[in-house]
Amino acid sequence: MALSPAATMVTDSVTKAGTVKLSAFSTQKPLEKTSAATIKSLESAPLVNLADQLNDAERRKYVKGKKLGSGQYADVFSAHLSTNPSTLYAIKKIKVIEDFKDGITYDSLREIRFLQELRHPNIILLHTVYSTKNQNLNLVLEYLPGGDLLQLIQDTGGTHYGMADIKAWMAMLCRGVYWCHSNFVLHRDIKPNNLLIAASGEIKLADFGLARSFADPAQPMTYNTITKWYRPPELYYQAAHYGGAVDVWSVGCVFAELVGRRVFLGAIPDTDVNMVGAICNAVGTPTEDNWPGVSKLRGYIPVDAADVKPVRGKEHWMQQFRAVGELGVDLMMRMFALDPNARCGMEQALRHPWWTAEPRPSRNEDLPRRGGGVRQMGEDLKRRGGELPVEEEGRADKVARKLDFGAMKV
Amino acid sequence: MPRLTQARAVPAPVEAPLGNKDVCKSQRYLNKSMRFLINPECYHKMCSACVDRIFSFGPARCPVAGCTRTLRKNKFREQTFDDIRVEEEVDIRRRVAAVFNRREEEFETLLAYNDYLNDVEDITYNLINKVDVVATNAKLEAYRTANSQSIDANKSIASREAQDHAAQQVAEKDQARMRREAARREDEEERRALVEGRQDVLNKLAHGGGDAEEIAKESHKVTLKKRLDRRAAAERQRQLQSTEATTNGESNGLSGVLIKGLKTKKDDEPEAPFDPFGGLTIELSYTTVQDHYDWDWLNVQRKDVQYTAGGYDFQEFHSRALCEAFSGLGVFIGEEMAAGDGSSDITTAAAAGAATGSKDTAMYDAL
Predict the structure, then answer these.
(1) Which of A142, A172, A205 is the last residue of a domain?
(2) Which of A38, A146, B19, B49 could form a disulfide with A373 if both were Cys (CB 3.0 to 4.6 A apart)?
(3) What is the tens place of the pLDDT at every residue in B331-356?
(4) CA A170 centroid distance within chain
(5) Residue A164: closest C-alpha in chain B
(6) Chain B nearest C-alpha distance from A157 (Å)
(7) Structural domain count, chain A
(8) What pLDDT score does A17 carry?
(9) Which of B307, B309, B357 is closest, CB to CB, to A217?
(10) Does residue A27 come out as left (phi exceeding 0), alpha (psi in the -120 to 50 range) or beta?
């Protein structure tokens, strides 16, 4: 495999992904390994064009099984290799949206684009893509039967975890995000239900439906991205030029949610104003002092001097997050810096002394887990980027979790 | 004091062969059933009657004139060696060896192990020859308290080994006995078969059926066949036994049978310190990103508050621009083909695609 000129990877002891063998990290991934022989054998098929033949060959490699989940945007099936029924995959079949004129949606395009380039133990692996009749896109993904992190967080009765487990999960999350950023990809939708759990206990970053590559300086990016509760203040202030710091804020939110076992920055209803209020309450009010230039941002909402809440000090954070110790709180505070320039980068975060301090992160096999995760994988993968998980389809749509959250809010 | 520089202490005074002691002046000459006992406190010898008499009512001073030790009855035992100095030395060696029980596999080099043995021998020598006894004992105790854990671990290993060894010997003895018995049985059977065959031949001759020569040859053939059959059966039996022995041997330790040459299980290696990067380092191999690039177009934006306040990272832009500029370098198709990687051409295509990739993302982002 050719080395990318961008990065030389030195891997010593990288954990192997569950059922998938990763020989090395790579930024590029050969999607279709169709040898000349298979092409020749297909020549007899009635398909006329070579692309169709290749697609057909790829499709025949997998046997679709049970439907794991179904949503407006995609259906998720379990699948296995036609040659080996014990090798499992998940196939995400993206539905064609009738009134969308331009063919496939941006979400699926983004997802394929970035997943096919990113290969890392903590990022969901895209094996291949093929299309079926009606131009439906099928993404063959890694099979992750362990459910998602949100399930573990919400299962306050049944699942118990400690600092070592939080540290292990956070380390995996940070590695995954670090890998995205060092390959110039912004994930822009990091939240616990996009963190799927593999059979080995590792967590994998999934759902690249909102991802994009770092923008050139002159190029504006949308500020209406990232699920609201995990969205950083600069996006509420409608910054069009931002960087990896937006993901770091989301990682911080996941961190805080892991410790507190409830959404850290939440507001009902989750309007922008309410959310900015929640951030001001929990972290502090952004002002020109703690965030130079903030008042010049397009969506900046001026605050009366009387209402300005000072940036919360260490004691305040320690009160809420004592469970991760002083160093853990320090790392969390760095991730929650209001000024994106002052927020720590992913590499800096990984260099923080918290990781190497006691206790040592749990080993994968010791991490707490919960059964019945296959269905959850279906639920998670069918969702569209930026959506909150829905407990019950239909009448109580989107209400269940919010009510739940309201009850938890102190 | 180093043992080597010191002359060996004077030889022990030869004891009277009849075990004459000052305690009760009785001799074995007078009483054949007399037992002499010693106490490892002072190694003074006295008869069992005296021990009962003096120490039955609790600890008491040694009755030997000039000895001030307090002795207890339960410590008295029979002497193993005739020479009381050997007895004492063996006791000391046993005591020292129980504390200094490091094993050879714990040392990195043979030299280190030998040095350790030399140190231990120095201590032993000092204790035996009463050189610096207080200091040496203090050293011994200090070592014991400091290394109690490893001492216990090695003790249990040693006792397990001793058990294994004993069990192995029993098993070997058992097998040897079985083999002997089988051989004996076989011999007997053969002898019986021989006699039977002979009888058979005689009978056939007596009944006068056919040629004598023929009959003899026939019977010889039969005995030979029988013998071969028996031998094959015995061989099978032996093979069966040996496989049984090896399969049983897997459960080493307390279960009884064992395998030779098994290394005693060691604890897992201590884990390497946690690496938050998971063993991954990213190095740019073609470019070095500078802190600042003087470029008018970029300078304007660098000062724009919409960029600085929004958290746009120009450093990230620099490294991405450089990376994209150099994408595709370092991909040597010839080498890949030579390496025989079937997917090489696709890889290269993907690399080229990735290099231009970020351009087309831009189109559909600004929604």
Answers:
(1) A142
(2) A146
(3) 788 887 777 644 433 343 344 444 43
(4) 13
(5) B274
(6) 30
(7) 2
(8) 35
(9) B307
(10) alpha
